[in-house]
Amino acid sequence: MIVTIVGVGLIGGSLALDLRANGFADKLIGVENNDCNKKRALALGLVDEFKKLKAAVEESDLIVLTIPVEGIVVALKNTLNYINMKQTVVDMGSTKNHIVSSVKDNINFKRYVPTHPMAGTEYSGPDAAVKNLFANKVAIICDKENCDKDALRIVEKLYKSLFMKIIYMNSAEHDVHAAYVSHISHISSFLLANTVLEKEQIDENIFNLASGGFESTVRLAKSSPKMWTDVFKQNTDNIIEVLDTYLQLLHQFKSYMVQKDFEKIYEQIEMANRIKRIIK
Amino acid sequence: MIVTIVGVGLIGGSLALDLRANGFADKLIGVENNDCNKKRALALGLVDEFKKLKAAVEESDLIVLTIPVEGIVVALKNTLNYINMKQTVVDMGSTKNHIVSSVKDNINFKRYVPTHPMAGTEYSGPDAAVKNLFANKVAIICDKENCDKDALRIVEKLYKSLFMKIIYMNSAEHDVHAAYVSHISHISSFLLANTVLEKEQIDENIFNLASGGFESTVRLAKSSPKMWTDVFKQNTDNIIEVLDTYLQLLHQFKSYMVQKDFEKIYEQIEMANRIKRIIK
């Protein structure tokens, strides 16, 4: 199978490594706007060659979009206009509803499978690509009832070849749950980094005290500004809703501190400990 | 050297494992109120025997307090009353100023070295004890000018035997910096867990989406309620100050979202990325 990967960064590059190793792809074509990334991806042997989108699409059985979600909206429209009914398009963006809505009137809409593999690191670009990034993680496939059966089957086969567990959701539900669990975690981490950088003016103190829990909590604050601004743009309402709850609980905690009501604080921490039942 | 460890949990138990392995301690005595922990610690061979505080102290060259910080205040006072001028006491609590102040008039105050090893995990109890927990981490020694030179030297030798990097601070400074970096991280994580548990009613969704960043950000939310309530009790003012900054930045972020000012959001994330210069 000939596979085109649009955006050969952390996700696209890691995907390329696995699809070559497991034999899913016979040939890998990259599409990339950024010349530096193109050079690095070729030097790392992630893809066989780079082409312009149209030329790459015309040659491919499967086109995978792994760029930030605002870029996906544009690339997806173009890709669907270039393909025929035997080709399949899949995106791996962290939001789904806006992307799906943007192409629902396209004549080739049924060839498109909206997905979100729950895999990644805080790093970005082709140098961040690693083998087995996806193994044993969850891949979400959205609105499967809208897809042509053979297109869906190819994408399921793709994720199974990466050893992912597939779950199904509709795209609006996806965005609610992603906001509730993944997107709020990033906001919590971005602002924690900014808080600590603002309050603690001495870098060395941050470095020395980082193993007191800060390091793991702030890991996500290293994530790509472009990728995450796009996500926040496309999932604004769901994110504001969960951010309101987070703010409310932080204010409540602060008022317990001000009132020195440490019984209530103990209860809050005990409640937080319930996360153990879900995450070992 | 005979070492007594008061509180044979995550920190005390891990310490016992290392001090036995590196030959620093010839004999390890445990002091523990919790009968279950006592049994587990003996079963795991963490200490040689358990004694009451007074009997243990009388037999020991070095007494290490590794219980939650409210307990340290009580145990430290008792320990200082039991020792002679050849014995040394060290505590490993996450707050320092209140503990130090509580014994500054004690006749044996100079035998006490206040410290905070920046090492730990989100787990607690003797079963959480692991080897090499402290290696290559930072140990903070506070108010060294108040300590007898030989007492200070023994505690420095202790931390060097664990391969820790020692830094010095006064205890009031310690509490400010610990609030700014470590304590706020825990609050951010506890309330993130409660937010997600409140908004996302379906455990399976949390589990499935956890690898989208939530898992690492929420790790600290599994931490001990007793330990952290004590820390919040003893470092209230510093924590409220940094919590105010965190709340202010979260509100600002929310207002950018409401106004759909995504340029400002991009800037906020770019600012957060500066944490890379400190934490690789």
Overview of the structural elements:
The structure is a homodimer of 280-residue chains. The first copy, chain A, has twelve helices and eight strands. The first copy, chain A, has two domains: 2-169, Rossmann fold, CATH 3.40.50.720; 174-277, 6-phosphogluconate dehydrogenase C-terminal fold. In chain A, β7, α6 and β8 (165-169) form a beta-alpha-beta unit. In chain A, strands 3-2-1-4-5-6-7-8 form an eight-stranded mixed beta sheet, sandwiched between helices. In chain A, α3 (53-59) crosses α4. Chain A has 280 residues and is α/β, with parallel strands linked by helices. Helices cover 52% and strands 13% of the residues of chain A. The first copy, chain A, is globular, with a radius of gyration of 21 Å. The interface between A and B is large, with 91 and 91 residues.
Spell out the blueprint of helices and strands.
Two copies of one chain form a homodimer.
Chain A: E1 2-6, H1 10-21, E2 27-31, H2 35-43, E3 49-50, H3 53-59, E4 62-65, H4 69-82, E5 88-91, H5 97-102, E6 112-117, E7 138-142, H6 149-161, E8 165-169, H7 171-199, H8 203-209, H9 214-217, H10 225-234, H11 236-258, H12 262-272
Parallel strand pairs in A: 1-2, 1-4, 2-3, 4-5, 5-6, 7-8
Antiparallel strand pairs in A: 6-7
The helix tally of chain A amounts to: 12
Q: What is the N-to-C succession of helices and strands of chain A?
A: EHEHEHEHEHEEHEHHHHHH
Q: Give the number of domains of chain A.
A: 2
Radius of gyration of chain A in whole Å, from Cα?
21 Å
- Helix fraction of chain A? 40-55%
How many E-type strands of chain A? Answer: 8
